[in-house]
Amino acid sequence: MENQFKEQVAIVTGAGSGIGEACALLFARLGAKVVVSDINEKGGNAVVDAIKKNKGQAIFVKADVTKPAEAKHLVDETIKAFGRLDIAVNNAGIGGESNPVGDLSVEGWDKIISVNLSSVFYCMKAQIPAMLKNGKGSIVNMASILGKVGFANSAGYVAAKHGVVGLTENAAIEYSAKGIRVNAVGPGFIETPLLSAMDAAAKKALVSLHPIGRLGKSEEVAELVVWLASDKASFVSGGYYAVDGAYLAR
């Protein structure tokens, strides 16, 4: 199925590293033309270079998707380069400030909501009209296991990811009959740069929360994302799909 996405165009935000990078690389390997987007130019361009090295097609578009105009610019540049938009993976996100609700700064809250929730809305607002022109499209929003349960000292992140799940469900109700499927993915804790600052003891404690006995890999999340984006998932819309090593089953 190396040409599963031949002639299809995919945007991946936060694609300069981690899960976004894994998604971009896999879409390209399966034949999609990929628009790699991030605020990290070095990382984003490195992903594009890796895709091109493997004879794939990709461009990098720097975009701060917490700004509505830049989210729209990302879609405009995609259309300009490739003529259409078929798939969008709204993955850009941060961990943000870690504090109990009573101690969480207003600035910390605002930043987490802006990056992890508002950006998804801004991106979808720009992506959906482009997909409607095709009469078909698939949007995959990156939520988290914390889009379903709480986690101490992570109120902003938990609230934002719950919001992503709700936004996904709502958009699916509104656009599924128009050919656009919208789904959310809920990764458990994944070995990404977001966890790089964590010490060994803290990481061991995180691992213990996953009955599978380890943290996940970005490539494992990408496999689910790509399936949801594909025609193999043609009746799948409005869903939330965990990829979490049984974390939520506890």
List descriptors.
7 helices; single chain; 250 residues; alpha/beta; 7 strands; globular; 7-stranded parallel β-sheet
How would you explain this protein's 3D organization?
The structure is a single chain. This protein is of the alpha/beta class and 250 residues long. It has helices at residues 18-29, 41-53, 68-82, 106-134, 155-175, 200-208, 218-229, and strands spanning 9-13, 33-38, 57-62, 87-90, 137-142, 180-187, 240-243. It has a seven-stranded parallel β-sheet with strand order 3-2-1-4-5-6-7, with helices on both faces. α4 links the parallel β4 (87-90) and β5 (137-142). α1 crosses α7. The longest helix has 29 residues, at 106-134. The model has no long low-confidence stretch (mean pLDDT 96).
Q: Profile the largest sheet.
A: 7 strands, parallel
- Helicity, in percent? 40-55%
Task: Please compute the radius of gyration using only Cα atoms.
Answer: 17 Å
**Spatial ordering of strands, largest sheet:** 3-2-1-4-5-6-7
| Shape estimate | globular
Q: Could you tell me the number of beta strands?
A: 7
